[in-house]
Amino acid sequence: MNLRSQPLRSQPHRLPTGGLIDRDRPLRFTFAGRRYTGYAGDTLASALLANGVRVLGRSFKYHRPRGLLGAGAEEPNVLVTVGEGAWAVPNLRATEVPLYDGLVAAPVNCWPGVGFDIGAINNVFSRFLSAGFYYKTFMWPDWHLFEGFIRKAAGLGKVENLPDPHRYETCFAHCDVLVIGGGPAGIAAARAAARSGARVLLVEQDAVLGGRLNHDDAMIDGLGAPAWIRSAERELAQAPETRILRNTAAVGYFDHNLVALLERVEWDPARLATPGQAACRFWQVRAGRVILATGAIERPLVFGGNDRPGVMLASALRQYVNRYGVAPGRRAVIFTNNDDAYTTAFCLADAGVEVAALVDARKAPEDLAAQLRGRGIALHDMSVICDTRGYKGLKAVRLRDASGRMGWIDCDLLGMSGGANPTAHLFCQSGGRLRYDEEQALLRPGPAVQAMEVAGGANGTLALGPALEEAHAAAMRALEGMGQMPAAIPAPRAQASRTATITPLWSVAGGKSKAFVDFQNDVTLADIGQAHRENFVSVEHLKRYTTLGMAPDQGKTSGVNALAIMASLSGQSIDATGTTTYRFPFTPVPLGALRGSATGPLFRPVRRMPGHACHAALGAVFEEYGGWQRPSCYLRPGETPHAAEQREAAQVRRAVGLFEGSPLGKIEVKGPDAARFLDLVYANTLSTLKVGRCRYGLMLNEQGVIIDDGVAARLGEDHFLVGTTSAGADRIAAWLEEWLQCEWVDLDVVIAPVTAQWGVLTLSGPQARAVLARAGTDIPIDAAAFPHMSVRDGYVADIPARVMRVSFTGEMSFEINVPADRVDALYQALMAAGADMGIVPVGVEAWMILRTEKGYLHIGVDTDGTTNPLDVGWARVLGKKVDFIGKRSLLRPADQAPDRLQLVGLEAMDGPDHLPVGSHLRLAGRGDGSDGYVSSSVFSPTLGRGVALAMIHGGHKRLGEAVTILCAAGERPARIVELASYDPSGERLND
Amino acid sequence: MLRLSCPFCGPRDEREFHCGGQSHIQRPGPAEAVSDASWGSYLFDRINPRGHHAERWHHSFGCGRWFNVLRDTTTHHILAVYAMTEPVPDMVQSDSVA
Q: Which NCBIfam families does the UniProt record give (chain A) (predicted)?
């Protein structure tokens, strides 16, 4: 049937019959602003080809017009953005995007459009853009001069600066046998494993099972390919422990048989907008055995002008004709070095496409030559195509025969085949190495290094019959390897076929046009030659110098050609040349699929304190502190946050405040060696603490750096309650466990983190005792019976409580620990009890004002990863007799150097405004550089001026010295003072 | 992503564990008797072998126990899992490792 005789239709290249498409379901779509129609079952690529759209993108570096090369995951040229606005997804292969009604797509690498692209000027100046041009051209005088231009030109695609509305899901699975690839080999393997009762997961990146059977029909077990696939699908669907995932690409192979899968669930934005509708699922599968049946990818041939739109892989042409019912051109030439491409010539001719010639670089096999003659197709064997013509679409190819004679053949389509190569990316990711098979001219997997079998095309077994047998045997071996009993079933049998042959042809010289090896990264034959001349010997260096095999493509069509060319240039064997490392992912994975649902409020769990509802009812402004939602302050009507903080802090000094400190870390330490253990983990001594008393302590790491502080209470001779900072609660519990389990294994101690079991409400201020008494307690709370730094158990407001007299404010404080579910009741009771004594709820910011007034250090704010106890005025730890973590480090001269950054107080000399936190400062008489910085700074409502803490070089010996604060507003005078600005003697604590 | 066998819980995914680095490091003491050099070595010197590596792992999102693992750094094969208090099992390095 001749296409030209067809009436004009909206899809001029659609064949009248055939293909796995649904002609009753036409779908509208838009590409580069123009409207087209296709059919259900099309990919974006096949629909564009059906509409005769040939230039579908521009190449990465030279911006050359490009069309489709392939039909599946191997496609290097046609990267598109699909969707609009926030739904836009860049850098998708048009061959992998299923058509849906209303699809909107645009090419990624051209401006203003595919037809006219300003970047194509690079093609003219290409001699400046050869391999390594970055390194050579932009060296002088300074790379930064060029960087802006280069960055603008670099990269593929564009991401909208909008939140990604797609829903992504994360899935985990375990199975006995994971079969990757749902072609004939994969189906055979999955069926054999499933029949034997194994838990099988079969994954196929295409929407349908069958692989090449969808475009190359065959007889298997007496059935035609479609019938055989259907019967296998039915059987697998009924197997109880077997699951098939379609539209699912295996993208990563990691240690211990962990395989990552990307399942494309839905494309259509109209349906994606439905709540709960996932776009992608990212699977992590731990498999007992993996059977790799990923097939093979055809290699392009490398000759001048092999990138023009209309030059395609020969096997891809069969896919467009047989699977999608599309004639990829009107007049075709086939160029090959192997038998497989003859099938394409026959297929095209049978579909009504004129085949002008088949060009075989070898002597043509006689049986195939006869078949060509039978169809009236001209054969030129012992000949090559050395060049092509046609800027925006192929117009003619240049033939050169064995005697060197040249001639042009008019055509708009060239199917090329350089042989097939196993899709061994996952095999390489698993740690395996490839070996060169001389006879078939391909790189095939060597011995597996993980629990894996390779079968079919992926193993270099390209013929159908042997591939089915191999896959069946692989499943049997996999089952035996796991100690499972394989069922006694025969392997599927395919019609015997002739043995295919190939003669390697790695490149064709003599063309005037550029000969591309890597289409996606625009790497030419000349670039590889240049890299070789410039002495890049290793393939890994070649890859980086030329960018070959990088980026989304990962060398799918280019890798083997490049190696072979490199090998021939260096005179080494292909095995000795080696392969570059194939990396995760095999096909691009949206970043959103990797993060799954962990975004927004689900990014990490929100932790709320037990008294959250009480705070909310009182107008709390919540902020996140160390992972906890805590009140920063409580706003009254018309109040600013600053005013609220000031009011709350002042009221604690004047009357009493109520603060929730439930996140404070609480770790019980118990056992006969508990005191000895705590002497080892605290820089100060805990063993001398009396039962019922509390002591403040510092914990160091082995470098002598302060990692946490807090109050420890001795509940019994062998029982302590260790308090940590809120942020340190989990970390310090894990730290203590590590020392007990790994270092001091002989100590008889157990620890139990109880942070979340206890809620903590702290009454602080001169009226604290009165409020506690009013709330009701059976604990004697007068100063003599319950002095500062002691702990008592009893009841408060009829709630069982552990009360500690410790203070972070400098005021008399009762830290009341109650079971977490009683915090609410206690909160109400204390607020009611203190109502006529002026009690106010106090937020974290007021708490920070109060502690800064007192000069109490805040770990991680005043200290950093270099601060040791000497720096904060704890030189006395050097006198501790017994060993402790970090002690030896404090003996180093550098840890005792007099000019270390030391914590001091700071007072502004130019008025009451508080100093900016983080400002650097300079000592008197110093010209430049920094002598320290302001670590904490607040405005004190009680003192009516700013108070600050600072880390200053040699600060302890500089009390009273003047410093200059360097801040955005200019320089401000200040002087070094004692840490405590308020109540330095601590009298208020002992009331 | 390794699959480790916790001696208390059985085989689990690596994400449940935390690696604590090289195991069997002797903590020198008492502090006053330790030279700067040997203290520095204790703090900072770690082997980085191509082949067998004894390291300690913590089942952080599980039982909370520490244990030792002998792992081949080139293949990620787990050669042995043993208690914190046990010595490194005597294993012959595989041929693939020089």
A: soxA
